[in-house]
Amino acid sequence: MEPQQRSPLLEVKGNLELKRPLVKAPSRLPLSGSSFKRGRDQMEDVLEPEKKRTRGLGTATKFATSHHRAPVLTTVPQAQGQTAAPKVPKKTGPRCSTAVATVLKTQKAGPAVPAQKPDTAAPPKLGGKKPGKRPAWDLKGQLCDRNEELKCYRERTQTLDQENQQLRDQLREAQQQATALGAERKTLEGELARVRAQAEQGQQELGNLSARVLELEERLGTQEGLVQELQKEQLGLQAERRELATRLEEQERRLQASEAALSGSQAEVASLRQEAAAQATLLAEREERLHGLEMERRRLHNQLQELKGNIRVFCRVRPVLPGEPTPPPGFLLFPSGPAGPSDPPTHLSLLRCDERRGTLSGVPAPPTRHDFSFDRVFPPGSGQDEVFEEIAMLVQSALDGYPVCIFAYGQTGSGKTFTMEGGPGGDPQVEGLIPRALRHLFSVAQELSGQGWTYSFVASYVEIYNETVRDLLATGTRKGQGGECEIRRAGPGSEELTVTNARYVPVSCEKEVETLLLLARQNRAVARTAQNERSSRSHSVFQLQISGEHAGRGLQCAAPLNLVDLAGSERLDPGLALGPGERERLRETQAINSSLSTLGLVIMALSNKESHVPYRNSKLTYLLQNSLGGSAKMLMFVNISPLEENVSESLNSLRFASKSFGVPTQIIKNYHSALAGVAQWIERRPAD
Ligand code: ADP
Ligand code: MG
Predict the structure, then answer these.
(1) Which of 118-132, 155-169, 190-204 has the highest mean pLDDT?
(2) Per residue in 514-546, is it b (16+ CB within 10 Å) or e — as a string?
(3) Which of 299, 403, 434, 642 could disulfide-pair with 627, CB 3.0 to 4.6 Å?
(4) Domain coordinates of the chain in residue numbers?
(5) Is 524 in the pocket of ligand 1 (CB under 6 A)?
């Protein structure tokens, strides 16, 4: 629908509008022959509408050309074309020609075409015959000619009237048609507007639909991708489903088999339940009996330890270290016990050559033999495990609720620290008593948990130097410092003692104990740089508070286990010049000697059951007073150097131990009767 193109209907309408003046024209047309005389101007008026009509129609339209044209009309020249001019009939008289020429002049349209040619100005020939020129006297002839001419004009007027009438009819018809067409045009315009609106709406809808189609296509693409993925997934799932179905079948088969077995087992379970109930009763009985036996074991164990002696002394001689001089043969002897070499040694003999003593004849005096007997003697080849075996029973006593104290006594370098903490390098073979005792405690506590006992352990490690107490577990800024640790009662009226400012660390595994021993070693190392070899001039006290509880029976037990590495027992050489360093050393030695002799005195007072025990005479005995005496167990290791050069200090140590902790012969007697008691207990033990 091209808006620029004019529809034929509109074209017709336009033409009709142009012709409108024609509608008014008929009233002015001459309708009768008498009116012909009106003159040239009137004649032009008559012709004018016709001319206008013809011009208005322009190029021949279908409508215009469908009617027959009267010759007069064809003589009116078209303003637009020159070709119309030659068509003017030559018949037309001069007046008619003049009229036509006037019309052409007033139109002023088209190119300057000569409208009045000389030949066209000739008068019209009426009746096809041109009368010859009449003489002036032939008036009758002239009249006749004029009548003829008039007749011709009348005929012509008549024809024009008819034609006029025809044209009026045509015009009316055309007007009617134009009205109809106008109405139709309006309808069509309305229709067109509606169609256009519809088309616009349709266009819009089409646009929307196109966008929607694009969107849907896009979605379709996505959906297709999704569908493909889902299809793939579906395939995977189908395979999985098949596999699961197979497995399910297999499981069902197994289930059936299991159900069959289950029904068989159910009967068995019922009988087993009965059996279990019987076993539970038996177990409860056994537990009861076991508990009774455990209590009996504790009692007998303690009795055995008491019979062995609440105070025991072991002597340990360290091996000669690489680079040290080999002692002369027979310098130290370890005679066998009464039962021969299989008996663990309990005696030690030391040969001493005294150069100062000589015979009168000048021959050197024979070496003096010094014999000592102890609860047990460990020759240089004894391993750490062998030593621990002997004290494991005491560790058990601590778990049973009896305080235990184990000391290492001897000169510096005799092997005290080696015995207590172990050798260097963390080799498990050379682990000392402290880590071994702790491991043993943890494992026994674990076993006893099966019987309803719950144990907890809290460790502390302090050093007593020159009668001042220092925390070896101090951390941070307190590390290596002297500290203001004091020994105090835990509370008013309490028997329990505690060291103020010292760390008490709960431990539950070997690793934690290892960490504590390492920390103590570091603390001692820091102190060593400040004061020369202070560790050998101080007592190191490792204390472990053991607490046990049997919640089911409302039983409790608590006891401390003390492992003490004493300060070197050597004396100061009296021949040494007393410089400022030596004076300090002398003060240290006096403090050590004082505390060691107080320890000896305390032990002696305890073994003699004296009413006064001088605990308060030293920090060491004061700190350990709850672990000494009464039912407490005490063990002293006397560490001896195997070197001949240390013979004097070795003798001193051995004498100190014999004097302070001399084993009464009665104990040995009791020991044998205790063994008989243990044998009895073993017989009564339930068979596991
Ligand atoms: P103390 O603590 O009495 O001064 P140490 O325990 O430091 O003496 O021992 C001194 C040296 O002897 C250390 O090098 C130690 O490793 C070594 N030592 C002590 N006893 C033994 C032993 N039984 N076996 C092997 N080496 C030992
Ligand atoms: Mg030491």
Answers:
(1) 155-169
(2) eebbebbeebbeebeeeeeebbbbbbbbbbbbb
(3) 403
(4) 309-315+346-353+369-572+582-673
(5) no
